[in-house]
Design brief:
With about 170 residues, this protein is mainly beta. The protein is built from one helix and eleven strands. The strands form two sheets. Strands 3, 4, 5, 6, 7, 8, 9, 10 and 11 form a nine-stranded antiparallel β-sheet that branches. A two-stranded antiparallel sheet has the order 1-2.
Length: about 170
């Protein structure tokens, strides 16, 4: 039992020590391609609070992995449409939604900057301008981030991706 706990501790610490080098996931996009205050915007449709950022671009524009990691899921969800989930460094899950097409397979390794899909308007983005909904969720909660905002307790799990896109 001790050996198993030690192995789990080593894996946990190793995941936290892997450097995270995030980059803009939409090819050619910059800080003018999204609204910096869209993260944690309330009210926001059926989800109540917008827990990511929408990066606007032409349909079919390349979506690249913001960081290296394991692809946990590729497929379709009712709200997200075509989505890709990547487990990256620091035990963070990167969620790419509304993709027009998906260019990777589940359980594969993806390098930062590698193409994973294309901007689209699938899921609840149908009929809206094409964009990538991108969010970062931490598997290790940050309880000090909880506040009185609507759904503020969830802030311990969601990180603001726009912080990583500024020069």
């Amino acid at each position: 039992m001790r050996r198993i706990l030690l192995i789990l501790l080593v894996v946990l610490v190793a995941g936290l020590c892997i450097p995270q080098q995030l980059r803009m996931p939409v090819q050619g996009a910059d800080t003018n391609s999204f609204h910096p205050r869209s993260f944690w915007f309330h009210p926001w449709g059926a989800s109540g609070t917008h827990k990511g950022v929408d990066i606007f671009a032409k349909k079919g524009t390349a979506v690249n992995a913001a960081t290296a990691g394991w692809i946990l899921y590729t497929g379709s969800l009712s709200r997200g449409g075509n989505v890709v989930l990547v487990l990256g460094p620091k035990w963070r899950v990167h969620y790419y939604a509304h993709l027009d097409t998906i260019h990777v397979s589940r359980f594969a390794w993806v390098c930062g900057g590698e193409r994973i899909g294309a901007v689209g308007a699938t899921g609840n983005a149908q009929g809206k301008p094409p964009h990538l909904h991108y969010s970062i969720t931490t598997l290790l909660p940050y309880p000090w981030r909880v506040d009185g905002d609507p759904q503020g307790w969830k802030k311990m799990f969601y990180l603001d991706p726009t912080r990583y896109f500024t020069p």
